[in-house]
Design brief:
Elements: E1 4-8, H1 12-24, E2 28-32, H2 35-45, E3 49-53, H3 61-71, E4 76-80, H4 85-93, E5 98-101, H5 106-120, E6 131-134, E7 137-140, E8 145-148, E9 151-153, H6 157-167, E10 173-175, H7 176-183, H8 194-206, E11 216-219, E12 223-226, H9 233-240
Parallel strand pairs: 1-2, 1-3, 3-4, 4-5
Antiparallel strand pairs: 6-7, 7-8, 8-9, 10-12, 11-12
Helix pairs in contact: 2-3, 6-8
Length: 241
């Protein structure tokens, strides 16, 4: 089955040009000319990738990105004529996966599209890795054990499942809905503060300073991201044992 890409771009010629390139590469492609229409099409069509222009009528790309990230983990590549670093930083902090500045080549855009899909694909894969080593954390699913900086720690059931999800997707922003679906299941009430409590418990177990977390980061208005630390001598020793 081919991948689906949604191009949210108000310049019709550019939108058609991008859509044509993706169709030629074997994708299904649709276009929307404003932010509100793009948001609605995202909800109805559920594309595998979104190409999102920054400057849009009715709703700008930043707001579209923020609203999509509240509900979905669909990869987003922001597309804009702006080259200022602050725009790239804001876009990436809101949850965009990559950033392409106009003018660009379709070859570059397609290459980046394939790359973000590869990074996102583990979220769609239910097969768990037996052993994951990430920074100072080692998770062994067969033994159902966790080692942090060379020391074994005990986690509650959902703490363990939550940590597995985070460390298996290092550097990726996971929105709250995706976390609830993966850890608690579709039937769980995603308005609950349970997730925040479990994150706090996890930080108390793995962060050197839980009040100033460096590994489990809050992405305001979206969800959480795990950033591996540099392995310490204790962590390396634990990995060898």
């Amino acid at each position: 089955m081919s991948h689906k890409v949604l191009v949210i771009e108000d310049e019709a010629d550019i939108a058609r040009f991008i859509a044509y390139a993706f169709k030629k590469d074997g994708w299904e492609a649709r276009t929307c000319g404003d932010g509100q229409a793009g948001l609605e099409e995202t909800r109805q069509w559920r594309p595998n990738l979104i190409i999102l222009d920054l400057i849009l009528p009715k709703m700008d790309g930043f707001e579209v990105c923020r609203q999509i990230r509240r509900d979905y983990s669909i990869p987003i590549i922001m597309l804009t004529a702006r080259s200022a670093e602050i725009d790239r930083i804001v876009g990436l902090e809101l949850g965009a996966d990559d950033y392409v500045v106009k003018p660009f080549s379709t070859r570059e855009l397609l290459a980046r599209a394939r790359a973000v899909l590869r990074r996102a694909s583990p979220l769609e894969d239910s097969a768990a890795t037996a052993r994951t080593e990430s920074g100072d954390i080692i998770v062994d699913r067969q033994m159902r054990s966790v080692t942090v900086r060379g020391e074994a720690i005990e986690l509650r059931l959902k703490e363990y499942d939550l940590l597995c999800l985070l460390v298996e997707h290092p550097g990726r922003v996971l929105n709250r809905q995706i976390i609830f679906e993966k850890v608690w299941g579709d039937a769980f009430n995603s308005d609950s503060r349970t997730l925040d409590v479990h994150i706090r418990w996890l930080r108390e177990q793995i962060e050197e300073d839980p009040s100033s977390p460096k590994q489990i980061l809050t992405i305001r208005g979206i969800g959480y991201k795990y950033v591996p630390s540099e392995p310490t001598q204790e962590g390396r020793a634990g990995a060898k044992s």
